[in-house]
């Protein structure tokens, strides 16, 4: 005799009854039935210190569990086994233009897919002529924690106007294995040269190039959106950006988030779904956030316009912030309430927000700090970090009230 059969039949009857009810009385979607967003209560845990003007945090994707910290003055440092290595990973300070403040300098590093077997990587920096460039560097033979500064191979050069600001500076490999490059509009208030909306300029854009094909210096992927459009540079993946200061791909979905710095009024988060065929125009300088930038000149959304998914106003005397720092989507396992949430901050006021798409985009301020938030970054496990530009301290983002996710599933035992 199977003593579990009555229990099994009972649950099967409940299941059948539920199916019949759902067919006869389909659920009505109301505001009350929409999922409630449970925002995490985040805090910052000091992780490592001693860095000078940190502007980028990333990993190599080589299972080494190392974190790479880019210092704006021209060095890249390694955190390995929770220790900051004494010898820099790369030191090119003698060829980097960094006056000690401002937006020029060594700005990011990116590691190609299968980096462990390749032994080279890419950096973006302002050279001594005031122009920006991306270059490839190789490791020293037999030294995985030291790169050879003499191995530089220039990839692409961006002639910068006389202004020192809006250099962009982000490099990142996308899920497709191509190298993405974020460029600023060239500086000066209001994009005076009109670069962001100029399809013949590489400034004020997100670019996508193939640097891993073996062709020198690179190939333009044929799947880029404007390769067959007259008047457009083929490298363009998206346009209409003012100064994209930190973008990131969601490692799970391939979605792209961009923090684009505003002019005087609004900061914005732009979004490109992983399913997009690209070509989005994010609106600058026709629009700043959701607002007309200069209504007397042009306030018409451009073709293929993609509005921001989140904005925040500067407030009176920049009380709410003045310069967005784009972040990343949490994909770690320690903090369930942070799962799938995008975090970003403000450089001037140290505020941190969370953003999530749940029946529409929702965002909320989660923390108010005194940090000068210069960058976010993630490690190989999906944990998120944030850097304080002033103190040189790297913090890990945590949920102070982390609780495991609870699921109720009916248990049917059959013997």
Give an overview in words.
It is a single chain. The chain has helices at 5-24, 115-118, and strands at residues 42-48, 54-58, 67-71, 75-80, 83-84, 90-91, 106-110, 120-126, 132-140, 143-147, 153-158, 170-173, 179-182, 205-209, 236-239, 244-249, 256-260, 266-272, 287-288, 291-292, 310-313, 324-329, 342-346, 351-357, 361-368, 373-378, 384-388, 394-399. A hairpin with a 4-residue loop joins strand 23 and strand 24. The chain has two helices and 28 strands. It has 415 residues and is mainly beta. The protein starts with a helix and ends in a 16-residue tail after the last strand. Residues 1-34 and 404-415 have low confidence and may be disordered. The protein has a single domain, classed as TolB, C-terminal domain (Neuraminidase), CATH 2.120.10. Strands 2, 3, 4, 5 and 6 form a five-stranded antiparallel beta sheet that branches. Strands 7, 8, 9, 10 and 11 form a five-stranded antiparallel beta sheet that branches. A four-stranded antiparallel beta sheet has the order 1-28-27-26, with no helix packed on it.
